[in-house]
Amino acid sequence: MIRFRAQVRGIVQGVGFRPFLYREAIAHNLSGFVKNTSFGVYLEVEGSLADCEAFFTVLQTTPPPLSRITDVERSEIPVTREQGFSIRQSSSGEKSALVSPDIGICDDCKRELFSANDRRYRYPFINCTNCGPRFSIVNDVPYDRVNTSMAGFVQCPPCQHEYENPLDRRFHAQPNACAVCGPRLSFLVDGVEQKGDPVDLFAAFIRSGKIVAVKGIGGFHLACDATNESAVNQLRARKQRYEKPFALMLRSLDEVERYCIVSDEERALLTSPQKPIVLLQTHSEALLAPSVAPGNRRLGVMLPYTPLHCLLLEATPALVLTSGNISDCPMLYHDNAIPSALASLADAILTHNRPIVRRVDDSVFIVSLGSARPLRRARGWAPEPLPLKGGARPILAMGAQQKNTFCLVRKEQAFLSSHVGDLDDPETEAEYLREIASMQRLFSIQPEMVVCDLHPDYVSTRLAHKSGLPLLAVQHHHAHFASVLAEHDVDSPALGFIWDGTGYGTDGTIWGGETLFGNVAQSERIGHILPFRLFGGESAVREPWRIALSVAEIALGRAEALSLFPSRAAEARLLLQASDAGLNAPQTTSMGRLFDAVAAICNLRETVSFEGQAAILLEQIADASEQETYRFDLKHEQDGWIYDWRPVIKHAILDAAKGVPAEKISMRFHRSLAKLLLDTAAEHRRETGCSTIALSGGCFQNELLLSLCHSELTQAGFSVLINRLVPCNDGGISYGQAAVAAALQTK
């Protein structure tokens, strides 16, 4: 006989880990016990050496599907001759246990939901250890019911029996409940609860073209019939979201394939336990309301991920399900004052009495080069930690201003927050601070240093300086670069092509079309696109015609530039005069803004109503059959390589004047960027001997650009790295900041 004790760390609470160990211990004739602790799971097993070894092999090779084991530390201890195997009460101590993300409804629960003879038939909060809310309801670890927002719901005898039975699928499923003892729905109109079945009332409102606010796992959504143009337009007016595409929830995969082209990889992502929003190409014959995604050839689609959603999709197979807020404000999730907050947005509110501890947005993914890539990492993934080498001191990385996330680091684990949003909004800033404090408490991380962006006007930078902690400022594009290298655990030198809209440079100008050379800890700028001016500063981001005017003047001269937009001639002259006088015309090397300029030259958009709109249209109209390309000029100057876009802009303007279709101009521009990347990579390889390339920044959300660049580079023998774990946009900045700080600690 032999006895072992083991500490198991990782996501091992709330995922059926203890009943799994119980069953395996019984199957292997072992005695002992298991319990949750503040670091994860602690167990002791006793039996023959062969049975113990077989038990630990199963533990590490076939754990429960939702678990993530990061470490198993075991040692031999004296035999006690204990009889039987038990699950003991949780113990406390130093907190280092991980918390599972919120997980979409599993097939077993969905079957029970629609089984008329099941006691949970049509119960909208059905869940088990394999699915349901986790991160959005937890207050503290260990992950026990008393530490969640389910603490106030006392289980009825049948639920309690399931909860205490190690062989039951609901053993210690903390949100476990039924219609007798659990949360309940209510349907409010003008703040007054209505009589009748809330799900039926929802269906009636949706069918009559109304808008209903729905309380989900991580906050409120606004729902309407996605086939009703009038309802969708009304929702746009109320949210003040006039053109940006809405997310859709469709009843089933069959419904998704009615509207979208779905690959095997996209199908797997849609049906995964996390059930994110997936960006899909639409069928030309899609019969949704045109205002769901005006002028857009992609739809953001998700399948029902809660039992409530499954019931609501009976009203219509296609719902618009967008965040419950005014555009650019945080999604509402607190119960207090919800009726008044949603009064101007929704005709009714479908809510429930299970509190939401923290706001968790829907994750957004796209399939690139055959595998999933996050554009927004939130529900289903946060707060699962990412690996991060180096660094003994706990770190808080504050992230960027737009698409903000923050990152807490402890012992080579990086806890990337759920999507926070844009910190321009005071409510978002307040939520940001609350969630930083909450996650520090949840994971017992007391940062000993703080990392921020170089930009002095970012809210995240201001708050970092106020923290009183030792501070490290990391340049925006180096953080993007480091995020890719850290993901792939690459410590050797690499070339980083970092293309985005805006990043504060070390010279005080706005960068965005940069080439870096270095590693995670440090890099140098060795190339960038030719600078140009943003006429009117921030206004140029909202009015791409101003950027086109700026680059046209440099490429073809003032007279030619003024002829581009005859209806705006007077305003254009004023902007040029202001620029001559050095007034509100900051210099930039932004590749994102160059996309905007070409879109305006193609007469696609002179103004935009949401970030990236012009560039998205330019990508989506591109004629893939077009083989011609424009070419950048390359010049080597004292401070590195300059990528001169003047020939590209000149030919695009001349082609547009000759009546060349915008579809062809777009494709020629995209091909020119891939050729630029290949040509510059070849020059840099000759100089540095480096063949490893990292691509990051918001421009690489562009699938066409990414695929063209990847193809050119790999054919030329380069090793190409892209973000797969964190977004390539500013949602990944905090992870990159943390990676830099951790790497510098090891120097």
Can you describe this structure?
With 747 residues, the protein is of the alpha/beta class. Among the domains are: 2-87, Alpha-Beta Plaits; 185-352, DHBP synthase (Alpha-Beta Complex); 527-672, Tetracycline Repressor, domain 2 (Orthogonal Bundle), CATH 1.10.357. It contains 23 helices and 32 strands. The strands form 5 sheets. Strands 6, 7, 8, 9, 10, 11, 12, 13, 14, 15, 16 and 17 form a 12-stranded mixed β-sheet that branches. Strands 29-30-26-25-24-31-32 form a 7-stranded mixed β-sheet, sandwiched between helices. The longest helix has 27 residues, at 662-688. It starts with a strand and ends with a helix. 54% of the residues are buried.
Main CATH class of the domain at 185-352:
Alpha Beta
**Would you identify the CATH architecture of the domain at 185-352?**
Alpha-Beta Complex
Number of contiguous helices = 23
Tell me, what's the shape?
A: globular
- Please tally the β strands and state the result: 32
Keywords summarizing the entry:
alpha/beta; Alpha-Beta Plaits; 747 residues; DHBP synthase; 23 helices
Please provide a brief summary of the model:
The chain is an alpha/beta fold.
Write the layout of secondary structure elements.
Elements: E1 2-11, H1 17-27, E2 31-36, E3 41-47, H2 49-61, E4 68-77, E5 85-87, H3 107-113, H4 157-164, E6 185-189, E7 192-193, H5 198-207, E8 212-215, E9 220-225, H6 229-239, E10 247-250, H7 253-259, E11 260-261, H8 264-270, E12 277-282, E13 298-302, H9 307-312, E14 318-323, H10 338-342, E15 348-352, E16 364-368, E17 371-376, E18 386-387, E19 395-397, E20 407-410, E21 413-416, H11 426-442, E22 449-453, H12 459-466, E23 471-474, H13 476-487, E24 494-504, E25 510-518, E26 523-529, E27 532-533, H14 539-542, H15 544-556, H16 558-564, H17 569-580, E28 587-588, H18 591-601, H19 613-621, E29 633-637, E30 640-644, H20 646-657, H21 662-688, E31 692-696, H22 703-715, E32 719-722, H23 733-745
Parallel strand pairs: 2-5, 8-15, 10-13, 12-16, 19-22, 22-23, 24-31, 26-30, 31-32
Antiparallel strand pairs: 1-3, 1-4, 2-3, 6-7, 6-15, 8-9, 9-14, 10-14, 11-12, 12-13, 16-17, 18-21, 19-20, 20-21, 24-25, 25-26, 27-28, 29-30
Helix pairs in contact: 13-23, 15-16, 15-18, 15-20, 18-19, 20-21, 21-22
